[in-house]
Design goal:
CATH superfamily of one domain: endopeptidase domain like (from Nostoc punctiforme)
Order of helices and strands: HHHEEHHEEEEEE
CATH class of one domain: Alpha Beta
Number of strands: 8
Strand order of the largest sheet: 3-8-4-5-6-7
Shape: rod-shaped
Largest sheet: 6 strands, antiparallel
Structural class: alpha+beta
CATH architecture of one domain: Alpha-Beta Complex
Number of helices: 5
Helix content: 40-55%
Length: about 280
């Protein structure tokens, strides 16, 4: 016996011929199957058909949707109505503010006009008082220097005027001795322009009421060329403070002041500033 006979071999034991043949057959069958499958080509996929059922809207859901739409419409209508109301309120407020401003403006204008009228009335009253005082002073001065004429307030001259001028002169002379009253228009008391106006009214001539306007009511004439019936004025033309009527022969009739009343006097008694001819 060899000395190495007892040492086991490291080689694997050989498989039996039957097992080897079995394995070869199985492997061959598998490969054949793969080959046949490859030759046949890829298999066609069958289409998949699937039906999806949609939910059906029930009657309750339809009612809810309709109610929601109606509510939305009502909200829109409410918003529109509110917008109209806001616009109307804003317009009304603007109109009221404008009306108030206009009322305030008118009230202020009326107040100013009233104040101006009152101031004008006061100024006129003061001017009239001043004129009356001035005429009174002139009359007193003339009376003291003309003591030889004791009946100067009585007519001492019969005018030779004719026509309308004669009527004017006659009316003026008939008022001599009447009282002087500021603003007087007769029949028994006069102021200077009231007497002149009334005298010319007897012949159908309607003169302005105040002396300022009467001093420009006719044609300006020179004091050296006077005729009976001419209107004499004291002060400037258009700004006269006193008027009278020339009756001829260097004399005039006028409502002088509260002290003398209506008098007939010589022009030297109170020399006028100018004269106008109406007739």
């Amino acid at each position: 016996m060899s000395h190495t006979a007892h040492i086991p071999s490291h080689r694997k034991p050989r498989q039996s011929a039957s097992k080897t043949a079995l394995r070869a057959g199985v492997a061959g069958g598998v490969l054949s199957t793969i080959a046949v499958a490859g030759a046949a080509g890829p298999a066609q996929a069958e289409p998949v058909t699937q039906t999806i059922e949609m939910p059906t809207i029930t009657a309750g859901l339809s009612t809810t949707v309709a109610a929601s739409a109606q509510a939305t419409q009502q909200v829109a209508l409410d918003i529109e109505t509110q917008a109209h109301e806001d616009a109307a309120a804003a317009y009304a407020a603007k109109t009221a503010k404008k009306a108030k401003a206009e009322a305030v403006r008118k009230a202020e204008a009326e107040k100013k006009a009233q104040a101006a009228a009152e101031a004008e009335a006061k100024a006129e009253a003061a001017e009239r008082a001043s004129r009356t005082a001035e005429r009174t002073t002139l009359s007193a001065s003339s009376d003291s220097s003309d003591s030889s004429v004791s009946s100067s307030s009585s007519p001492s001259y019969s005018s030779n005027a004719t026509g309308s001028a004669a009527s004017v002169v006659a009316f003026a002379q008939s008022q001599v001795g009447d009282a002087y009253v500021s603003g007087g228009t007769g029949p028994n008391s006069w102021d200077c322009s009231g007497l002149v106006q009334a005298a010319f009214r007897t012949v159908g001539v309607d003169l302005p009421r105040v002396s300022q306007s009467q001093s420009t009511a006719g044609t300006q004439v020179s004091l050296s060329n006077l005729q009976p019936g001419d209107i004499l004025y004291w002060g400037g033309a258009g700004s006269a403070y006193h008027v009278g009527i020339y009756i001829g022969d260097g004399q005039f009739v006028g409502a002088q002041n509260s002290s003398t009343g209506v008098v007939q006097k010589s022009l030297d008694y109170d020399p006028p500033s100018g004269a106008v001819r109406v007739l």
